[in-house]
Amino acid sequence: MRIAVTGSIATDHLMTFPGRFADQLVGDQLHTVSLSFLVDNLDVRRGGVGANICFGMGQLGTRPVLVGAAGADFDEYRAWLDRHGVDTGSVRISEVLHTARFVCTTDADHNQIGSFYTGAMSEARQIELKKVADRVGGLDLVLIGADDPEAMLRHTEECRTRSIPFAADFSQQIARMSGDDIRTLLDGATYLFSNEYEKGLIESKTGWSDEEILGKVGHRVTTLGSRGVRIEQAGEDMIEVGCAEEEAKVDPTGVGDAFRAGFLSGLSWGVNLERAAQIGCMLATLVIETVGTQEYTLRRAHFMDRFTKAYGHEAAAEVQVHVG
Predict the structure, then answer these.
(1) Sheet of 10-16, strands arranged across
(2) What is residue 169's three-state secondary structure?
(3) Cβ-Cβ contacts under 8 Å for 188 (sequence gap 6 or more)
(4) Which among 153, 170, 174, 301 has the fewest CB atoms less than 10 Å away?
(5) Residue-wise pLDDT tens digits, 36-52
(6) Which residues are catalytic?
């Protein structure tokens, strides 16, 4: 099963200020703020939901196709993804813009001042999925993740026109989308991904009830944080899968992307939905134990030992033959 993942490609530049922002702000001068903070460290991390999901799938050995836009500064990031099993041949490289970038400074009280530069991400709307499909010999599923909003709409419409099954996954972009856009993006999706809060927001913005949405998508996959995931399909019994036990809770960033990576990998192997969700939850557990969205290492024996402990020998036997 050939799966393409469309979504953002970005880097995070994270800095730490040892003092407190509040001590540097003058109440009656806030309209003319001019400040510079001398920071202690700089942590540059690879990110973007499209790249994060593909990295996880690559770790599992499923060779996903990353579809997105980056700048001429993407060479090192591309090499990293290539080494970890991602097909980056369909990434558009902008001639004028840098790769999207989040720059954030955190103070001693964990307050943050950040800026997000969209950069080359805006050119994702110029990518045609037919060219991607022709290059790789066809697509069986396209996950349409958070990206340039116009790109998300274009990719969705092209999937419908060309009868390519697609998964809708708005994540960070749901806050800026109108109800009309959300209705357009989810109608006819084979899978609709969201967390529990986003689920309510989707229903509020579209004006559609949970039952109405289930009638418009094949499966509704809702992540529930520490409680795992719920999968619903109209007329079918609900599937609920719990999280694998974590060894430490270090950093929740990228956990949702890791779940999707594991779930999609399970689909590509042809296992059932329960097994796919279990793979997703196990991979998400590895990410929450690590600082950064692509800094974990998947060691096959370690992964399977923990998967067996969490979900049993029968489930592990079905998954073990596939894990790369």
Answers:
(1) 41-47, 10-16, 100-106, 112-117
(2) strand
(3) 160, 166, 216, 217
(4) 301
(5) 889 988 988 999 999 99
(6) 257
